[in-house]
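ingest -> validate -> predict -> emit
validate: passed (alphabet ok, no gaps, 92 aa)
predict: started
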Amino acid sequence: MTEVIKRDKRRESFSAEKVRRSIESAAREANVAEERAKEIVEKVSRKVTAMAEQGSEIETRAIREAILNELDTLEPRVSEAWRKFDETKSTQ
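emit:
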């Protein structure tokens, strides 16, 4: 099982479901149609999960970058919503 290394150096098991929920949330925030959102979630989460499972550990930063790179290509509105959420989270 792949371990995720958090910013504060804590470790936790990789969760494909957590990745899916994050992408779904950004898609909702971007007002993407439900069917399109499902397609995006499936494509991006499958690719990120495969990448994460190639090694025994991965940093959250690498997961985030992979997700955003995929979203930039597939649906820029969703990556923009993700980045806006990141901005508001970091200012709190």
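The two ends are 33 Å apart (CA to CA).
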